[in-house]
Specification:
2 copies of one chain form a homodimer. The first copy, chain A, has about 260 residues and is an alpha/beta fold. Chain A contains 8 helices and 10 strands. Chain A has helices at about 35-40, 55, 80-90, 110-120, 135-140, 165-175, 190-200, 230-235; strands at about 20-25, 45-50, 65-70, 95-100, 125-130, 155-160, 180-185, 205-210, 220-225, 240-245. In chain A, helix 6 (about 165-175) packs across helix 7 (about 190-200). Chain A is globular and about 55 Å long. At the A-B interface, helix 1, helix 4, strand 5, helix 5 and strand 6 of A face helix 1, helix 4, strand 5, helix 5 and strand 6 of B. Strand 6 of chain A pairs antiparallel with strand 6 of chain B, so a sheet runs across the interface.
Chain lengths: ~260, ~260
Amino acid sequence: MITLPENFPTTPTVKPGEVWLVGAGPGDPRLLTIMAIKAIQTADAIIHDALIDTRVLDLAQKGAKIIYVGKRGGMASSSQPEITATLIELAQAGHAVVRLKGGDPFVFGRGGEEAEELAKAGIGFRIIPGITAGLAGPAMMGIPATTRKTNHAVILATGHRVKDDQDGENWRALARTGQPIILYMAMKRLEEIMLALADGGLDQNTPVAIISSATMKDEKVLRTTLKQAIHDVKQNAMPSPAIVVVGAIAAIKIDMLVKMSDLP
Amino acid sequence: MITLPENFPTTPTVKPGEVWLVGAGPGDPRLLTIMAIKAIQTADAIIHDALIDTRVLDLAQKGAKIIYVGKRGGMASSSQPEITATLIELAQAGHAVVRLKGGDPFVFGRGGEEAEELAKAGIGFRIIPGITAGLAGPAMMGIPATTRKTNHAVILATGHRVKDDQDGENWRALARTGQPIILYMAMKRLEEIMLALADGGLDQNTPVAIISSATMKDEKVLRTTLKQAIHDVKQNAMPSPAIVVVGAIAAIKIDMLVKMSDLP
């Protein structure tokens, strides 16, 4: 139980007919925001992805519809138009709907697309940002996204292919900034991406850190280099979800008192 | 009051002699995480920056030392070595210390540097990530950091000058990626940065959105372009803290049900 002082602002509740796009953060339920918890507790329909911890879903009220629409590589999943249609249907039927996404809905989470469709359909919605795994995952393993010694910018990028003819040049342009790149959903195409980054001028010894299951019990980190990454991933299974950090920050090792994954 | 189910993981408390580097999120107290709230509630010394809402500080227990070490442009403030020395002294004196920072301690927050100094001094510390204002600020004004139509990457950059001789080329390299750039602490040097980005090839009509006091009561947004930004900022006061979004995403206007700043 969390007791809040009297002057703490009132947290709104999800109303029938509304859809809230809620970020569940990087994994550990303790990294949920107050707004996210209140949303989950007051919704009567929750549409969620694969990356949501059961202890987060257990915040839902009794009798709430819990609908899984996960999209994990290889497994059957709902298409984006199906998900949007479900959100609209539920809201129009008078449900108080939460669309729960790992990380932040607006950072490689298709929250923007879903919000635009909801707006078109005349459904009232809100965005509740969450902590994105690309920043928190490395942080909890002692890797800061920025330090004054290493970088003045940090790039968040998706590993998904965009347009075939631009793909290589896109990666090369990112490499040429010399700034660290944090990759989401990049494990499937890791070899191709590492090669394109090297092709863009990144040194083969550029530090790389791969964080699997950030902030969760089975969290692990692999420290490697641009040259060795593919070899090392073959030797060490790094199951998704994984975040890949490429650049000077990936070599930083701040010794933490205790990691999130060490906590009960 | 927030009631959590029995299977919700126990939240640790700050122990005497420890320092926790805690992210307070973009501004609104409801965007604090459970971990952050518990940290603030169990610390007996809180060292904080300028950007922390009083309602966040009011979470502290009675009698806790509240020490302000803000660094706002022009105003007297503690130097970074002074801040680190204070953290170490307080921890060594047996205090349960929270170092509270706006946004995320590891995203342009010098959390990495402070953590390294704490580690050197043998002080046990933790990192509690927060939602960074560069992502949540635009989100709450209807601007997603990424959409599949507009970008496969997003760049977070600080407006602070790095090394004089590299500064222009750094900005030009970021511009050449064609990806949106989200700027922190860029208002003082806005003209110089806009010119360098144009010099790097960004079209003069590239959309720009400036968000002042993200998620707070006095939040406002200015929509402009690379060419018009300086002129428009002169016509419309955009007090810091401000986030500047440059790129296709800055033109997106998702109509929100209600903004964080509209809430009580």
